[in-house]
Amino acid sequence: MSQATYGSAKAPAVPARGAFVSLEGIDGSGKSTQAALLARLMEGVGLEVVSLREPGGTQVSEKVRSILLDPANDMMADECELLLYEASRAQLVRQVIVPALARGAVVLCDRYYDSTYAYQHGGRGLDEGLVRRCNELGSCGLSPDLTLLLDIDPALGFERATRGGVDRMEEAGLAFQRRTRDAYLRLATEEPARVRVIDARGSQREVLGRLVGELVALLPALSGGPERPPPQGRRVAWPPRAGTRCSRPSPPRWRGWASSPACARSSPPPSPRGG
């Protein structure tokens, strides 16, 4: 396994037989619900799926999560918040994501470094270059193959997310969510080949169909297509080179997801926080 260096950290070059998919979106966009539905669908067609959330996913990372979301920590400095997210991510990448990809699994992650860009740069207003550099370190140089951005009006998302109370991030309010969404959409404009914007309006089934439509090029098993050839290796694609624009490939036609036994099972109840 070759290595690349980012600052003082060595980044793993994964022999990428698996696939790395991240789900992104503002609070209340439905990410967590759709992540559960996607995982069930992928498992139903025979894929090994490792479902993760950020922050979290390891014993260390879950402890960091509890610190980050605790409303009692309302005096936390923005820089402290940023570094805690990156610390949680680094542990998750090294302990779980890299081994899963190396054995050929599909890693489905509810949030990854795009959340840090959107929330800590867009929402909090931290310097963009600083956040990007920290993301390099926290991700250990590992970038998703595909990022699905669930887009929803911030007012609707905020209403959904706060029905059952608020955590420390949601206490930042609606204006914070609007700034975060704007940052997400800028990322999608900068990296259209990786970041796909998904309309999060409609029923769970309708949104799931849109997600699957974007996924079949990466995971042909979802449409009964041929297996994709394994990539030669995965290296960091963060930050994108200035001026780089990629054409967005048209996904192949897909079929049968709605009649899949996995999809035919009852949908999980919506998360009380909206995902």
Q: Detail the poorly predicted runs.
A: 1-8, 225-275
Radius of gyration: 18 Å
Total beta-strand segments? 7
Q: How are the strands of the largest sheet arranged? A: 4-5-3-6-7
Number of helices: 9
Query: What is the SS-derived class?
Result: alpha/beta
Shape: globular
What's the average pLDDT?
81
Major sheet description: 5 strands, parallel
Portion in strands: 5-15%
Full CATH superfamily name: P-loop containing nucleotide triphosphate hydrolases
Order of helix and strand elements from N to C terminus: EEEHEHHEHHEHHEHH
Distance between the termini: 36 Å
Instruction: Report helical residue fraction.
Output: 40-55%
Annotated CATH topology:
Rossmann fold
Please tell me the total number of domains.
Answer: 1
CATH architectural designation? 3-Layer(aba) Sandwich
What is the CATH class designation? Alpha Beta
Could you provide a short overview of the structure?
The chain has one domain (20-227): Rossmann fold, CATH 3.40.50.300.
Labels describing this entry:
5-stranded parallel sheet, Rossmann fold, alpha/beta, 9 helices, two-stranded antiparallel sheet, disordered C terminus, 275 residues, disordered N terminus
General description of the model:
The chain is of the alpha/beta class. It has a single domain (20-227), classed as Rossmann fold, CATH 3.40.50. 41% of the residues lie in helices and 13% in strands. The chain contains nine helices and seven strands. The protein has helices at 31-44, 59-69, 78-102, 113-123, 128-138, 154-161, 174-190, 204-215, 261-264; strands at residues 3-6, 9-12, 19-24, 49-53, 106-110, 146-151, 195-199. Strands 4-5-3-6-7 form a five-stranded parallel beta sheet, with helices on both faces. It is globular.
